[in-house]
Write a structure and sequence with these properties.
- The protein has eight helices and eleven strands.
- It has two domains: 130 residues, Rossmann fold; 93 residues, Dihydrodipicolinate Reductase, domain 2, CATH 3.30.360.
- The strands form two sheets. It has a six-stranded parallel β-sheet, sandwiched between helices. The protein has a five-stranded mixed β-sheet with strand order 8-9-7-10-11.
- The chain is α/β, with parallel strands linked by helices and 246 residues long.
- The longest helix is centred in the middle third of the chain and has 14 residues.
- It is globular.
């Protein structure tokens, strides 16, 4: 007997959400079916079942909602969505607002639903979490902003919480790493503008009594497949696997 596909709701249908929708539509995500897409402006160009109305979106009864529209979307919609289903998000920077984080946590406990922060274009969050489980955990990050014509320079040094307020769209991966590790106020970050280079760099160094973890990624945000979309698709595939790695 064929299993009934799980119903997937998408918040956002841009370069990331649109790629996830296409993956469902073309059979790349067996076991998942998009039931609704919540957008700011209705756009049927992809043939997606779009709506701008939250109640209409919720009425499609998603088993899981993917928030793929950025930190303001999570801040605005997160509580309402968690009341009805589990939510996966790529917008960790929104959780630098401690009051919002506490509200989302309270709703998750009350509803028995869960908010999952996806790793996005980064790797190594499992290593960061393992390092943080041992005494003496520290975490430092170097995050490049998207390349541009300006000269390379350091734009910020400080805590991840401070960086999230200054660069909310650029440090989602850093906030995710900090939450997996010693926390937003204990994690140090350097935010750089890399100059006119082909791609930018994301790097972390976690250390504790368990040893050292070093990870470096160079995501390509050009005209190809968005690396965050790839991360979301991979997470959905793992969710449906009988044997799960990681």
């Amino acid at each position: 007997m064929t299993a009934v596909p799980r119903r997937l709701g998408l918040v956002g249908c841009g370069r990331i959400g649109g790629r996830v929708f296409d993956a469902c539509r073309t059979g790349e995500l067996p076991g998942w079916q998009v039931c609704g897409v919540l957008v700011r402006q209705a756009d049927a160009a992809r043939g997606a079942p779009c709506t701008t109305d939250l109640d209409t979106f919720v009425s499609t009864r998603p088993d899981l909602v993917l928030e793929l529209a950025g930190p303001p979307a999570l801040a605005t919609l997160g509580e309402a969505l968690l009341r009805v289903t589990d939510v996966w998000t790529i917008s960790a920077a929104a959780l630098a607002d401690e009051a919002l984080r506490q509200r989302l946590e309270a709703v998750a406990h009350a509803s028995a639903h869960r908010l999952r922060i996806l790793p996005g274009a980064f790797a190594g969050l499992d290593g960061v979490a393992a390092s943080a489980a041992a005494p003496g955990a520290t975490l430092t990050l170097v995050i490049d902003l998207p390349p541009g014509p300006e000269a390379a320079e350091v734009r910020f040094r400080g805590t991840v919480r401070e960086a999230a307020r200054l660069f909310p769209d650029a440090v989602n991966v850093a906030v995710a790493a900090a939450l997996a590790g010693p926390g937003l106020d204990a994690t140090r970050i350097e935010v750089r503008h890399p100059g006119p280079v082909p791609r930018h760099r994301l790097a972390l160094h976690a250390t504790s009594a368990a040893g050292h973890v070093r990870v470096e990624a160079e995501p390509d945000l050009g005209q190809g497949v968005h690396p965050v979309a790839c991360s979301v698709i991979a997470a959905l595939r793992r969710e449906g696997s009988a044997i799960r790695v990681g």
